[in-house]
């Protein structure tokens, strides 16, 4: 079975194709293709409050291209979601109506809570050790989602208007950031020896730069990478470090967010399973498909 997910974020738009294999004792989700197009909707929204005509036209073309790929991809079902930038754009609803009219794709604007729930749909909790607290940290361009798991249960889930694009544009006040740090510290105070789970394009890139795939990233290592990146100019991050232009500037505020959370929760290391919102959408699509199948088997 194949499913597709569209994730329209504040920094980039993504289309994920994922195959699902039902084996005797497990369900296997295997990514087939991931298409990522940088668009930086957050640059407009967090500074002007709306999406410019230029970015609107680009977004419509991107979604149209995604719709054609989905059409030929022979998927069972798909879902398209947009996050922080689109939900805050004054002209967001108008743009979504244009997208629907031109491409046939219905894009849902989801709030931070729904975003966290979809990320949770990855069933991370089922794979975690009991009696250990895990803080799932998803850092995007417009928001950061934090979810605490303990004994396979969700203790809390919070969404904060702190993201890499916002920080680049100085749209996160010192007061809000201070409140964020205090709240994270208070929410996790009763859980010692927390382990962090990192999510988002930046942390996936950071773990590759650290050459630690499938190994934890320590807080000390993140500080080391942060100091190294800050020593390079923006151009050198692209030319010397090999970062994409749309990654070279946001990676520094992403590191600041991860380091801040770790320092205020006592987390000493992060594991990075390389999953995110699009993966969560696919998991939710599969569960809906199975539920519908079982419903059809019930006697009338």
Secondary structure blueprint with pairings:
Blueprint: E1 2-8, E2 12-22, E3 27-38, H1 41-48, H2 53-73, E4 77-82, H3 84-88, H4 92-103, E5 107-109, H5 112-120, E6 133-139, E7 144-150, E8 153-160, H6 164-168, H7 174-187, E9 195-199, H8 201-209, E10 217-218, H9 219-230, H10 234-239, H11 245-248, H12 251-265, E11 269-271, H13 277-297
Parallel strand pairs: 1-4, 4-5, 6-9, 9-11
Antiparallel strand pairs: 1-2, 2-3, 6-7, 7-8, 10-11
Q: Could you state the order of secondary-structure elements as H and E? A: EEEHHEHHEHEEEHHEHEHHHHEH
Query: What is the chains' assembly state?
Result: single chain
Report the β-strand fraction as a percent range: 15-25%
Shape: globular
Largest sheet: 6 strands, mixed
List keywords for this structure.
300 residues, alpha/beta, six-stranded mixed β-sheet, five-stranded mixed β-sheet, 13 helices, 11 strands, globular
What can you see in these coordinates?
There is one protein chain. The chain is an alpha/beta fold and 300 residues long. It is 47% helix and 24% strand. It contains 13 helices and eleven strands. The strands form two sheets. Strands 8-7-6-9-11-10 form a six-stranded mixed sheet, with helices on both faces. A five-stranded mixed sheet has the order 3-2-1-4-5, with helices on both faces. A hairpin with a 3-residue loop joins strand 1 and strand 2. Helix 2 runs parallel beside helix 4 and helix 7 crosses helix 12. The longest helix has 21 residues. The chain is globular and about 45 Å long.
């Amino acid at each position: 079975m194949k499913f597709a997910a569209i994730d329209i974020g504040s920094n980039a738009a993504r289309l994920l194709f994922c195959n699902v294999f039902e084996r005797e004792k497990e369900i296997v989700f295997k990514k087939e293709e991931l298409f990522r197009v940088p668009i930086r909707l957050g640059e407009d929204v967090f500074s002007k409050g709306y999406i410019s005509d230029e970015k609107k036209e680009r977004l419509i073309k991107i979604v149209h291209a995604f719709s054609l790929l989905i059409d030929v991809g022979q998927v069972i079902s798909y879902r398209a979601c947009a996050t922080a930038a689109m939900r805050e754009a004054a002209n967001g609803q108008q743009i979504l109506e244009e997208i629907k009219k031109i491409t046939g794709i219905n894009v849902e604007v989801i709030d931070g809570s729904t975003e966290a729930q979809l990320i949770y749909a990855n069933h991370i909790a089922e794979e975690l050790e009991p009696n250990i607290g895990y803080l799932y940290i998803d850092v995007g361009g417009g928001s950061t989602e934090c979810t605490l798991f303990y004994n396979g249960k969700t203790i809390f889930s919070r969404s904060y208007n702190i993201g890499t694009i916002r920080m680049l544009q100085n749209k996160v006040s010192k007061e809000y950031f201070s409140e964020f740090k205090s709240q994270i510290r208070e929410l996790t105070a009763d859980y010692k020896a927390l382990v962090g789970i990192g999510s988002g394009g930046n942390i996936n890139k950071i773990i590759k730069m650290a050459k630690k795939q499938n190994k934890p990233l320590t807080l000390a290592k993140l500080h080391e990478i942060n100091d190294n990146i800050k020593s390079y100019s923006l151009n050198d991050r692209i030319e010397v470090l090999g970062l994409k232009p749309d990654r070279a500037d946001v990676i520094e505020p992403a590191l600041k967010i991860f380091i801040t959370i770790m320092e205020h929760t006592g987390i000493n290391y992060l594991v990075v399973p390389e999953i995110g919102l699009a993966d969560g959408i696919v998991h939710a699509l599969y569960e809906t498909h199975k539920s519908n199948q079982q419903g059809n088997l019930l006697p009338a």
